[in-house]
Amino acid sequence: MKPKYLLVVGSLLSVFHLMSQDHEPKYFRGKAEDSLEVMNKLSMARGVYNIQDYDSVISISETTLARSLEIDFARGVGESYFLKARALNRMGSRNKAIEMYRKALGYFESLNDHQRMAGAYNNWGLILKAMGKFREAIEAGENALENASGEPHSKLFFNILINMGNSFQNLAQFKKATSSYFESLNVLKNEIDTIYKERMQAEVYINLGIVYFEQKLYSKSKEIYHEARIILEKQQLKPQLATVYNNLGVTYTETEDFKTAENYLNLAQNLNLKLNDKVGVAICAHNFGKILFYQQKYIKALDKYEQAIQELIKLGASAYLPTSYLGLGKTYLGASMPEKAQLALLKGLQMALKSGQKVQELKLYEGLITFHKSVDELEMALMYYDLYSALSQELNDQQIGRYIGQQELKEHLDKRDLALASLQSETALLEFQITQRNILLILSISVIILISSLFTMVYRQHRLRSMNKNFALEQKLLRTQLNPHFIFNALGAIQHYMYNKTPHDAARYLSKFSKLMRSILESSRTSKTTLSTELETMKFYLDLQSLRFNKPFQYTIELDPKLDPELIQIPSLLIQPLLENAIEHGLRPKQGGHINIEIKQETDHIVIAVEDDGVGLEVSKRNRQYEKSKQSLGNTITVERLSLINRKSKKKILFKVESRSQIEEGLSGTRASLIIPIN
Known about the structure:
Elements: H1 3-19, H2 32-50, H3 54-70, H4 74-90, H5 94-110, H6 114-130, H7 134-148, H8 155-170, H9 174-188, H10 194-214, H11 218-235, H12 238-254, H13 258-275, H14 278-294, H15 298-315, H16 321-334, H17 338-355, H18 358-374, H19 378-395, H20 406-481, H21 484-499, H22 503-523, E1 528-530, H23 531-545, E2 554-559, E3 569-571, H24 576-587, E4 594-602, E5 605-612, H25 617-626, H26 634-647, E6 654-659, H27 660-663, E7 670-677
Parallel strand pairs: 2-4
Antiparallel strand pairs: 1-3, 4-5, 5-7, 6-7
């Protein structure tokens, strides 16, 4: 018997079966010949559907629908709606397809045909899943299972379990997803068609691989994907093979084996192009973007992600968009484009919340936490962390046990439940340990911050006191150098020269006085000066000081010929207090005398010694006790100033004062020495 005659006989038997039922089905009062014509056209439309000519399928189904309504042929109406829904779905008109399935269900229910109802609910659930409406898809799947329960080992029952597992998986309900997948494997045990059985096993392996991937069990995920790949390559099932290649590429990306990942993604891309699977092409673009992101090639990665998002929006494949927006946001953040990163992450979160994709919602919270930390918005980061923690806690009871190998698939249920319980215990223990570590870390950081703050405060106070002390010392030094008695006497002496009609001397001393004032004021603004400048200032100072005496004192400067005074740097105005001390407490009591300034080099330092032949240390000390109003500031200022200078330098300046009689018996006066390291 030829195939087309078999088709006719099958259609007749179907019609005769309907007519022989005890009660006349609702909406069926037509003739057998009319019904046979409808069934033949529907059979032809199914053949056209298989060659993907969906426009023709819709045209034929509309014709059979009109004819079935005309002759009140309920099955013809239901099958026409069913077939039209399948074609509309393939053409991307999902909402219209759902409406057609809803109408078909009404007619199948009137016929009490639970198998066709199960098929309609299953296909309806598939559309909802593709639209990202996973909870509604699960509800449709439960209706499908209820209607297919009469044949628990049928292929339809298997497909319903797989589709429900997919929806559970997208909601991060991994325990329920795994249960559905294992139950589907049980259905396959009684399957005698080896080719079909292996193909369906491969489909289950693909879905289990995704579950392991989401738990970051990448080695187990790769292992089970390769088992699926072997079956699919053997049977040359190209659509499923493209999916496996794509998933292997993603898994190898996560383990940073980018070369292998690119190879598998290229295989997937080539198959998708041959199959004209535009969604598959868009997903591959997304995954190539992920490789580029990991390689920190952010600009190229952005092109791939944006290409994927535009195509997915165009195709209405919203279920994949949260993942792509997550990748886009992370890439913008890596490329230092924070505003665009935030927009992409929020868009992805909005779509994940709308579709109920818990896993992607969790990942997008992670992305937003990272973003707000990077822009120092800690309050916002904390808010998203709270949302992340709440969702993470909600999902803890939905994790699955670890896959050990293919052998486990044959022994699954009891061992799986045991592994699940163990994993939950480990998770609880790990969370407790993490909480303890977080508390300890927070306490440690708080203590460190407190200690650092105290240290900073003490250091600032110490520095401020030091600066104040240094400022006060500089003021003392300046007041000493600009001693009002000294200035008065110097000006008086200049006036004396003018009155005695010696303008030349008056001009000469006035010039020295102005130069001394300018030199002292300039030196007070800098911490160091050259030895040459210092000596010139001291000459002016000594010349003018001698005017205070009835019998001017003499001074000499002995400079070591090995020294270049223009190159040697010393603290400014360091010698002046020593000269002031020698004049006030050494020479003034005896109204005259001699001061010798000796500067010589000794190994790695220079010695500046100020000697006077005045009354000496002991007499000077007694004089100060009798003249309490006179205070010797020279030595005190020098000691305090050197203390501040030495704190800032590794090489210290030494200062000592000694009686000349201790150096050589019979000498009078005092010797004050500065020992200054040479840099």
